[in-house]
Amino acid sequence: MTRRTDWAEYARPVDPQGRGNRGDGGSVGGGDGAYDDVRGEADAYDGGAPHRDGRARGGRGRGRRRGFGEPADGAQDGGSFRSSRAEEGEPPGDPVERARAICLRLLTGTPRTRKQLADALRKREIPEDVADQVLSRFEEVGLIDDGAFADAWVESRHHGRGLARRALAQELRTKGVDSMLIDEAVGQLDTEQEEATARELVARKLRATRGLDRDKRLSRLAGMLARKGYSEGMALRVVRQALETEGEDTQGLEDEGL
């Protein structure tokens, strides 16, 4: 994976066209009543959502750039119980309409996994059967796509933060992404790409460690890689090679642990 894309610029729900029309035979929600205008509402928000192949539609958003997965305007999943439903755009009464409004509002800030949205609906005391109905429909029309979310997360967090496969997989697990989808997403990165990124990370930090003794430099640099999910073996190898370029005596470092 050589193309680098910062998904922080794209804070819109996944495009409801294309992949989302699985088995619909055309118009979204045709004859569904409560879902007749899902596409219309979603289209109003469309304008740059990440797709599974890494492309994005529409122009770039304005204002402060957010990291992938960061809520817009400081909002948290599920909103605040202290805010009125009217202020948050939630229709009163019908739980289906409330659930749809909550999901659409959260998806305008950043892509979300099904579990994240389900947790938000649970906090809002949406009945479980209603939540499942709404979330399934959103998946059908492409507004929820955990596979696309995982792909974009891996690309953004690896190139933006330098995280290794192990750390990326752990983050996706906490967001409720299926293990098979996680494996597919982190599979975008191979060992060669991981090591190249590890070298870049060490090169950026190397100058800041000059003046310290060798063991402290080793501990600081290798520890930084370990926190980002790199294996001990790779961390030690990359740091040792970087120190050698600075003229450090690295004899015996192969046998030392972090």
UniProtKB/TrEMBL annotation:
Bias kind Gly residues: ranges: 23-33
Pfam families (alphabetical): RecX_HTH1 (PF21982), RecX_HTH2 (PF02631), RecX_HTH3 (PF21981)
Domain RecX third three-helical: 194-238
Sorted UniProt keywords: Cytoplasm
InterPro entries registered for this protein in UniProt: RecX_HTH_1st, RecX_HTH_2nd, RecX_HTH_3rd, Regulatory_RecX, WH-like_DNA-bd_sf
Subcellular localization(s) per the UniProt record: Cytoplasm
Gene3D superfamilies in UniProt: Winged helix-like DNA-binding domain superfamily/Winged helix DNA-binding domain
Function: Modulates RecA activity.
Residue numbers spanned by region Disordered: 1-96
Family of the protein in this entry: Belongs to the RecX family.
Comp. bias (Basic residues): 57-66
Protein name per the record: Regulatory protein RecX
Domain RecX second three-helical: 145-185
Domain RecX first three-helical: 99-137
UniProt source species: Streptomyces chiangmaiensis
Protein encoded by which gene: recX
Domain of life: Bacteria
